[in-house]
């Protein structure tokens, strides 16, 4: 939808790049506050408040001009950020013996929702007559999520995030930093691909409808992958082998998009979707696997996501600016391939059987 939003608002390519970076920046900034929110209000009310904030932001960002779009997006993503940090704590606290299974289920649900967003927003624009209606309509889904959360969390999800023990800081843990950069690079890969894949395919003469469909496939592939990766990862003491396989899939797809995007776009999208779709749930489940207590889980979740998403924020913005300065996607994709190699190396360290 970026092309329609840009045309409707009369904004520059730089503004468009900033819009793609705002969600990741917000995930990083707001994630710092999530453990405090969980301690102050309890998990049930904290997640409910975050879903209400998400709904408000989704509505706000379609009512006015460029600055309101950015502001509303930031508000919506602040709600997402709190949920991102606290849901792993809910999983570890409420399902301590089924961490892998429950993590797989909720990350699969996230992938399915994202895929539906990519696939259905263009038809919604045609149905409702504008990009504002198509984008704003998703507030109905977040409102439904709030209702479901309030109904389902009446029992068992009322505790508060444990307070951090005095004198202990994960900022001094090398493993915590490895996991943070690993999380940041996988998010950078995901948000760069999701933000720019339709444009990459469009410049390779893939029509808009097909490009949107392929983007949806990239995201929806996360559903079956999420149902497989976390349960397997939770059973194995080491996740190094899994990181290597997912890294190889991602690298193959990125290189294909770099040098022959129009020759086999479905294949490159399949490879990227499998690799990218597996790295995210793996990174989330390793937050629980590398910690002993729920307080450690909350702190590691906040650290990996706050700093990690700030790292990731540079990806979509720099990717778009490099494309604009070079006139092609090749340099940007080669740089992305190098980051995939670094991501795989860090994941191999984070995947060893240790605790922060």
UniProtKB/TrEMBL annotation:
<feature type="transmembrane region" description="Helical">
    <location>
        <begin position="69"/>
        <end position="87"/>
    </location>
</feature>
<keyword id="KW-0472">Membrane</keyword>
<feature type="transmembrane region" description="Helical">
    <location>
        <begin position="12"/>
        <end position="34"/>
    </location>
</feature>
<feature type="transmembrane region" description="Helical">
    <location>
        <begin position="328"/>
        <end position="350"/>
    </location>
</feature>
<keyword id="KW-1133">Transmembrane helix</keyword>
<feature type="transmembrane region" description="Helical">
    <location>
        <begin position="46"/>
        <end position="63"/>
    </location>
</feature>
<feature type="transmembrane region" description="Helical">
    <location>
        <begin position="240"/>
        <end position="260"/>
    </location>
</feature>
<dbReference type="GO" id="GO:0022857">
    <property type="term" value="F:transmembrane transporter activity"/>
</dbReference>
<feature type="transmembrane region" description="Helical">
    <location>
        <begin position="174"/>
        <end position="199"/>
    </location>
</feature>
<dbReference type="InterPro" id="IPR036259">
    <property type="entry name" value="MFS_trans_sf"/>
</dbReference>
<dbReference type="Pfam" id="PF07690">
    <property type="entry name" value="MFS_1"/>
</dbReference>
<dbReference type="InterPro" id="IPR011701">
    <property type="entry name" value="MFS"/>
</dbReference>
<protein>
    <submittedName>
        <fullName>CP family cyanate transporter-like MFS transporter</fullName>
    </submittedName>
</protein>
<keyword id="KW-0812">Transmembrane</keyword>
<dbReference type="InterPro" id="IPR052524">
    <property type="entry name" value="MFS_Cyanate_Porter"/>
</dbReference>
<feature type="transmembrane region" description="Helical">
    <location>
        <begin position="266"/>
        <end position="288"/>
    </location>
</feature>
<feature type="transmembrane region" description="Helical">
    <location>
        <begin position="99"/>
        <end position="121"/>
    </location>
</feature>
<feature type="transmembrane region" description="Helical">
    <location>
        <begin position="300"/>
        <end position="322"/>
    </location>
</feature>
<feature type="transmembrane region" description="Helical">
    <location>
        <begin position="211"/>
        <end position="233"/>
    </location>
</feature>
<feature type="transmembrane region" description="Helical">
    <location>
        <begin position="133"/>
        <end position="153"/>
    </location>
</feature>
